[in-house]
Amino acid sequence: MTPAIRLLERNAIPHEVLQYTHDPKVAAYGEEAVTALGLTPESVFKTLLAQLDDGRLVIALVPVMATLDLKGLAKAAGARKAKMADPTLAERTTGYVVGGISPLGQRKRLPTFVDDSARALSSLYVSGGRRGLEICLAPTALIALLEATTAPLART
Question: Which segments constitute the YbaK/aminoacyl-tRNA synthetase-associated domain (predicted)?
Fold first, then answer.
């Protein structure tokens, strides 16, 4: 059991855990989850760590087939600029490995921003805290639990 799943259980949030065998040769973790589990790409969100120009770290969730709009993230966070955080820093800060970073149960709670497309979904999928593990839950539950802000963050 991962910290992400423990957090959901501790807060009695309805969720479903899905597993698949991760292929170590695949670097597109989110796309691998879509294919392996037969999910729609719009419903699977990747968890990205970004650093704002003032040094703050933030979490951004966007659909796996989209690119994070760093300008949109900076604007939503009240900053001028944002850049992707170094992968080593992301792992050290969250307690998860790249490709398995969950927005839930991170070592340090960071401000979280979710692409506003999530609001149109009845359920979405995020990493469960390791490669090959996905969690399905209601977007409203995820947003409320993380006290996340929704904003237009995805570019296709």
Answer: 26-143
